[in-house]
Recover the amino acids of this structure.
């Protein structure tokens, strides 16, 4: 009974707080009354509370995620420091010099493989010329050499590998930072884009080490994480359409509000119109997969290319379509020819950029500065390197 009375009292106080309210306004000698009902006030209050609550939940989730990532990095750094300490390394040498030699050979194979895959042969060759070994590694190596003279050469090799891995890690982190900055130049969030860049991956588990149970050395694990992050962001950067879709200098209609060319009324224009000669080649603004090629109402002959990470470009009013649905295209490939098909008043290209299905202004993508384009070029050269090496190897065998 007491609980029922408490609830009744609370409801009564809420009803008293959100009572019908009347306001009057006087203008030009006339008085008008405006009534805001208590029900409407309650709905507004509930909506505002829900929005604030949702914002607080999202902020809390982001904070927890950041703290988790930071703690994982700290734990890996502590593990790495422990494994690389003189005490642990001496214990490993005591157990088996042959075993250490085998581990170093496997580690060298791992470093050569991931370096060639992610950094490239030329950059790796430059990174091999180490300035000086870190002071701590040098001291640890001296202790091991004094305790086990027969293992001195192995100790020096291990110290050099660890120092080399640290140098590669720093290089990868610098390239990651440059890729993140380049993505932001396009007005995009690198964290949002890269989160979906590895959704379509898989394959059988093939352990790197022969025994299948040996853990990756923490120094190599740290390097591997840095290289994977760099690779993820650089590949994400390459999905961003940044090349002009044609050799055009004249823009006939911008993105945003305009007067409709047929009705004369206000309308939203979801792309940019480029004027040019009939039949001029239309080029892909970035590599991707043709997701549509054909006639589309209002757009005429149209090509749509999906670039990944929610990005899609549309090329409309074409006179000819030169690609087919499902075809893989690279940046700069001709996908069609300029025309005036569909709802068009003259020969031009209608170019759109869409992010997760929503049209966005294409201008920031097409006006990227030289530094951003250079970073894209480096990433493109790296990601194309394995293919070029394979082609070169195949031609030499032939």
């Amino acid at each position: 009974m007491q609980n029922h009375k408490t609830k009744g009292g609370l409801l009564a106080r809420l009803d008293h707080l959100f009572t019908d309210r009347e306001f009057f306004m006087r203008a030009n000698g006339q008085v008008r009354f405006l009534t805001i009902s208590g029900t409407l006030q309650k709905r507004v209050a509930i909506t505002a509370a829900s929005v604030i609550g949702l914002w607080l939940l999202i902020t809390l989730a982001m904070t927890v995620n950041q703290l988790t990532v930071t703690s994982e990095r700290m734990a890996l750094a502590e593990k790495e420091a422990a494994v690389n300490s003189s005490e642990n390394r001496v214990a490993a040498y005591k157990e088996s010099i042959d075993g250490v030699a085998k581990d170093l050979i496997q580690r060298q194979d791992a470093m050569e493989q991931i370096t060639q895959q992610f950094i490239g042969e030329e950059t790796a060759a430059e990174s091999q010329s180490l300035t000086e070994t870190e002071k701590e590694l040098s001291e640890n190596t001296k202790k091991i050499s004094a305790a086990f003279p027969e293992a001195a050469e192995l100790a020096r090799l291990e110290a050099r590998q660890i120092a080399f891995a640290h140098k590669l890690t720093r290089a990868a982190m610098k390239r990651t930072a440059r890729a993140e900055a380049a993505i932001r130049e396009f007005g995009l969030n690198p964290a949002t884009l890269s989160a979906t860049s590895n959704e379509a991956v898989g394959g059988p588990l093939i352990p790197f080490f022969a025994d299948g149970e040996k853990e990756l050395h923490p120094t190599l694990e740290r390097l591997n994480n840095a290289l994977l992050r760099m690779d993820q962001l650089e590949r994400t950067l390459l999905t961003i359409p940044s090349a002009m879709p044609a050799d055009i200098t004249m823009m006939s209609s911008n993105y945003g509000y305009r007067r409709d060319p047929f009705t004369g009324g206000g309308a939203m224009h979801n792309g940019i119109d480029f004027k040019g000669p009939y039949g001029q080649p239309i080029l892909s603004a970035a590599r991707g997969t043709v997701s549509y090629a054909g006639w589309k109402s209002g757009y005429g002959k149209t090509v749509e290319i999906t670039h990944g990470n929610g990005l899609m470009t549309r090329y409309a009013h074409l006179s000819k379509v030169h690609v087919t649905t499902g075809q893989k295209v690279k940046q700069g490939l001709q996908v069609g020819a300029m025309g005036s098909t569909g709802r068009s008043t003259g020969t031009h290209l209608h170019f759109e950029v869409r992010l997760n299905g929503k049209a966005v202004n294409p201008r920031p993508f097409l006006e990227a500065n030289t530094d951003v384009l250079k970073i894209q070029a480096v990433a493109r050269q790296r990601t194309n390197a394995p293919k070029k090496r394979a082609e070169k190897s195949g031609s030499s065998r032939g």
